Amino acid sequence: MPRPVRRRIGRLDREWARRADLRITVNDALADALAARWGTDRPIVVPNHPEVRSAASTPIDLHAEAGLSPDLRTIIFQGRLGPDLGLDAAAEAVLAVPNAALVILGFGRGLALSRARDRDPRFAGRHVTLAARTPDELLGWTAAADLAIVPLPPTSANQRRSTPNKFWEALAAGTPVVVGADLPTMADLVREHDVGIVAESSRAVDLAAALQTGIDRLDAEGARWRAHIELTARTRFAWANAATAYRAAVRAIVSRP
Length: 257
Description:
- The chain is α/β, with parallel strands linked by helices.
- The protein has 2 domains: 64 residues, no CATH class; 175 residues, Glycogen Phosphorylase B (Rossmann fold, 3-Layer(aba) Sandwich).
- Strands 5-4-3-6-7-8 form a 6-stranded parallel sheet, with helices on both faces.
- Helix 2 links the parallel strand 1 and strand 2.
- About 2% of the residues have low confidence.
């Protein structure tokens, strides 16, 4: 995008933000950045935490659904498929981990490419693309995996500060999540709350090492670790908690003269 166009978009962005009655974003890192960019009070933080339901209410046999050998560890990626999401790196990373397979639940313009990789002899039996699932089903599918991966490359300030739905959904399902250290907002949460593994970077070689570390820990204490992650999600990262801030913000707006 030409620089003059970027500058104009930036000016409009700040102008509309300053006029708004209510400014909301999804995490503290973005709130701080937007307040500085807009020159306004800090936006209210309403995290995009999921509404936690029992992921075990409808058990999923992920190996059977994906046609995988039962001795493989399953790594799940779910959500929109397309460029700049780290899917190439994730596929190569899982291929470098013995006895592991990547299961993708997805939609979008990258779906055909993902299915083509399923047919690539290099990835035979190690890369499976399935149709996206509805939000009511998603936690059960994510809970059926051994690990979840969020392989976003740190290509923008937004991605470096992001906390996408798939990250929170993995925690709600009790599934340890692997992220790169170059995504500091998620990486800090993973370290602070012990809910996954932080790779040295979002490169395939570092993601592979982190996946292996996660698998080794699951072998040693999988049930305890997963129970800790699910409990953390229920007590710290559930929609019931986030909704309190949202309702307070809405009440403040509607109570104005």
